Amino acid sequence: MAYIMVDVESDGPIPGDYSMISFGAIKVDNALDKTFYGKLKPISDKFVPEALAVSGHSREDTLTFDDPRKVMADFKQWIGEVCTDRPIFISDNNGFDWMFVCWYFHHFLGENPFGFSSQNLGSVYKGMEKDMFKTFKHLRRSAHTHHPVDDARGNAEALLTMKQGMGLKLKL
């Protein structure tokens, strides 16, 4: 299995009505040198200014971004290049990130190379600590900047710390 850490920035709370503005992915391995970054043109006229502001892009910026079908096709190709076996989607907030990535894959390509499931980094840590109030965020080394590749990298670093320093059984 190959773990792919993903982070999504959007201009609203749900796909379809709102748009995934950008996303980043990194293959979780000791090198953390295989990354993907996509910026997607909005698919809807609707957006929440406060949500869009988190991404650091203006609405005008996003209108110049790439066609979502092309970005998702490029992402699928990248997954195929960096994964020699089954890709596993994992993120800090998989309820949010998964819903956008899964919807976009199915809407634009008719399939999702990750299949039908995802994993949540925060839940892994809570289980390891046996405490539903614990957070893994102190395990990140990279700054959480809201650039999705930076954020995916920091989350991948946290997962590697759980494996290497805390005994998480994880095959990379």
From TrEMBL:
Residue intervals of the Exonuclease domain: 5-158
A UniProt-annotated Pfam family: RNase_T
Source organism, top-level taxon: Bacteria
Protein name from the UniProt record: 3'-5' exoribonuclease
